[in-house]
Amino acid sequence: MGTVPCLVLVLAIALTATPAVAQPAGPITIGDAIAAAVSAHPGTAEATARAEAAAEAVDLARAAYLPKLDAMWQVTRATRNNVFGAFFPQNVIPISGPVLGTDSFESAWGSATSLVFSAEVFDFGRRSAQVREARAGRDAAAAHADAVRLSAGVRAADLFLTVAGTAKVVEADTTTVARLEQLQRAVGALVSADLRPGADRARVDADLAAARGRLYANEQSLEVARIRLAVAMGQAGASPAVNAAPLLAASPGGLAADAAPVDVATHPTVREGAAQAQAAAAARDAARLAWRPTLLVQGALSARGSGALLDGAIDNGAGLWPDVPNWTAGVSMTFPLFDFGATRARVAQRGSFVIAADARQRALTDEATGAAREARVMAEAARRIAGTVPMRLTAARDAAAQARARYDAGLTGIVDVVEAERVLAQAESEAALAALALWRARLAQAAAAGDLAPFVADAAAPTGPPVVR
Q: What separation in angstroms does the CA of 401 have from each of 373, 404, 412, 416, 423?
């Protein structure tokens, strides 16, 4: 997702959802869950901060083009002994001046100030490669932040649908338990009147116990799903209730079978892989250019003062102010003659990184392509399954009513009744899940496209027909 899609997503969420707070005041919509995940989850904040840091790295790389001007000022109190001779450069600057022939621990004031100007006028493209690497790193970090936000939104939406689906299963289980409790009372009365064998009541008791066990297990799954949704929204201490009524009342309108294929090149993870490959190539180019001369235009303006006199005397009234000026200007060139071995190794290393980055980009492209194809298959299957729901639900309700009527009339046994109740409970649960499966397929399509804005808009105002009428 680029800058424009990101803005579209933010605007869509702002128009269709109000971000949830630490403890939601009421049931949240799927848009609320996505908005909270995108804006409040710590993972998105971390990715955004890293993207901002990568953007600053571009300015840092560009700063290499600027000339340098260093200023220095110092005041010292030191001895003035000096000897002739040479030594390797070091951090301790030697005392300058002639050899006086005598040593003394007398000290004098000394001062120095300078301005040093340095500008690299020609670099053989080295700094340009470093800027390209920084820009590619910035693009990769921005794409990664988009991918993290997309992933956070998709996870929150998926968990929202899980909570909604589990809640409908719990609701169906509760209804099933109530029906079986009513059947238990009716069968118990018949058994007590010696109109039915005791085995009928035992069978109802067993099925009622099993139904209650399923209810308790699904209630646990519902609470776990709510906790996971709260964590995905960046509100780990909350226990959000969901409002899935708009999703159950209508199906998504963006599941057209003839939808245009997804352009995976715009997906955030694919863009991140492409930018990382560009960064690796730029880093390899910069390594190749490292074994090049450095040409500098330099200039310096300096002044010194000292209380140590040429005859060995000390003038304590002098040296606190630099009063002897000098200037210099010229061109210098440095060349790392013996660095060719290290440069060759670095280039080979960066070349391997380029190969790895290219391979990763191809893998990410293949994964995005596969995800888009899976979303289309998922949408087609969800449409076909949803088409069977009305007939199946109607048939299950009729079968349960007929089985109960036949049992009350003494025309069938209790096994047919409890089996019909089991089929009805399963049909009611799967009817709700079939409706949510359409939305899950729509979410998969949006995730494969790398843009949740159409999904958020569709969820806010569904345009498709309901699954269960």
A: 43, 5, 13, 11, 12
> pTM higher than 0.85, yes or no?
no
**Considering only CA atoms, which of 462, 8, 16, 453 is closest in space to residue 255?**
462
Assigned token pair, 290: 């490292």
Check if CATH label 3.30.565.10 holds for domain 3-62+128-281+343-460: no
The share of the chain scoring above pLDDT 90, in percent, equals 34
- The answer to whether residue 23 scores a pLDDT higher than 60 is no
For 107, counting Cβ atoms within 10 Å of its Cβ (0-12 exposed, 13-18 middle, 19+ buried), the class is middle
CATH class of 68-121+293-337: mainly beta
For the residues 409-420, what does the mean pLDDT come to? Answer: 80
**Which of the pair, 387 or 12, is modelled with greater confidence?**
387
Average pLDDT estimate for 385-405: 86
Q: What percentage of the chain has pLDDT greater than the value 70?
A: 93
Every domain of the chain with CATH number 2.20.200 lies at: 68-121+293-337
Q: How far apart are CA 459 and CA 30, in angstroms?
A: 7
Residue owning tokens 């690299």? 120
In the chain, CATH 1.20.1600.10 sits at: 3-62+128-281+343-460
Q: What is the CA radius of gyration of the chain?
A: 39
Coil/strand/helix, residue 122? strand
